[in-house]
Design brief:
Layout: E1 2-6, H1 9-26, E2 31-34, H2 41-54, E3 62-65, E4 67-69, H3 80-87, E5 99-100, H4 109-122, E6 128-131, E7 153-156, H5 159-165, E8 178-181, H6 184-188, E9 192-197, H7 203-211, E10 229-234, E11 249-252
Parallel strand pairs: 1-10, 1-11, 2-3, 2-6, 3-5, 6-9, 9-10
Antiparallel strand pairs: 4-8, 7-8
The structure holds 2-amino-2-deoxy-6-O-phosphono-alpha-D-glucopyranose (GLP).
Length: about 250
């Protein structure tokens, strides 16, 4: 595990975008795992800017998003399909047929989970997975639980997550109660992982992810067992971390 601590939210996005861009330069047909939420927006903006300025080419890239709300169609402005179009895909030259998200409108979520896993495998697996982190240390929508959920599955959202995500909705009662999310195994199978976090409200979750016990009570803690993970933080999100952590390389930008 390595940790990069940056001065600001914008700088966090730049560092993350550099890693994603490097992946695409090295392997133009990379398969990226992508995240929604406010955290990765500065990374998406930077990648779009690099696409515009120096022609970073997404024409052979495939993307798989982590999750989607159940019951939300892609044209619903609060769906993650819509979020990704608005914040990223419409600004780059990715091919629509290479963009995948779980289908929140599927009738059978077990079958949809299986379909999604097969799709990922058929594209050769995920090269680089981008993650945010919930205040309760969830990744994707893998909420704290008594066990790690393996593959893409239906999730009942925690009250804390519903409250946190209500800022994107008119009222808390509009937030869906269920989602479909990649599982922990899906995420851990990725070759490389980057986790982004900014703001003081993520500092406890980051501490648990990096320094806590590996436990399904703090799903992000599983990343301590991944062979290639970079945690990219602004200084507020890093504020509870000790200055040295055994086995972890810390870079302060
Ligand atoms: C959401 C998403 C996660 C995201 C997290 C943090 O509910 N399912 O993938 O990483 O919560 O969101 P934000 O970046 O808006 O703080």
């Amino acid at each position: 595990m390595r940790i990069i601590i940056t001065e600001s939210y914008e700088q966090m996005g730049v560092e993350a975008a550099n890693i994603v861009a490097g992946q695409i330069y090295l392997k133009p047909d990379s398969v990226l795992g992508l995240a929604t939420g406010s955290t990765p927006v500065s990374m998406y903006q930077r990648l779009a800017a690099v696409h515009k300025s120096v022609g970073l080419d997404f024409s052979q890239v495939t993307t798989f998003n982590l999750d989607e709300y159940i019951g939300m169609s892609p044209d619903n402005p609060q769906s993650y399909h819509y979020f990704m179009q608005e914040n990223f895909f419409r600004h780059i030259n990715i091919r629509p047929e290479n963009v995948f998200l779980p289908d929140g409108m599927a009738d059978d979520m077990v079958a949809e989970g299986e379909r999604y896993e097969k799709l990922i495998a058929s594209r050769g697996g995920i090269d680089l997975q981008v993650l945010g982190i919930g205040q309760n240390a969830h990744i994707g929508f893998n909420e704290p639980d008594v066990k790690f959920a393996a593959t893409t599955h239906k999730v009942e959202l925690d009250e804390e997550t519903i409250q946190a995500n209500s800022r994107f909705f008119n009222s808390v009662s509009d937030v869906p109660r269920y989602a479909i999310s990649m599982g922990i195994k899906t995420i851990m199978m990725a070759e490389h992982v980057i986790l982004l976090a900014n703001g003081r409200n993520k500092a406890e979750a980051v501490y648990k992810a990096v320094c806590g016990d590996v436990t399904p009570e703090a799903p992000a803690s599983i990343l301590q067992l991944h062979r290639d993970v970079a945690i990219i933080l602004d200084k507020q999100a890093a504020s509870l971390l000790p200055s040295a952590i055994r086995g972890v390389q810390i870079t302060v930008k």
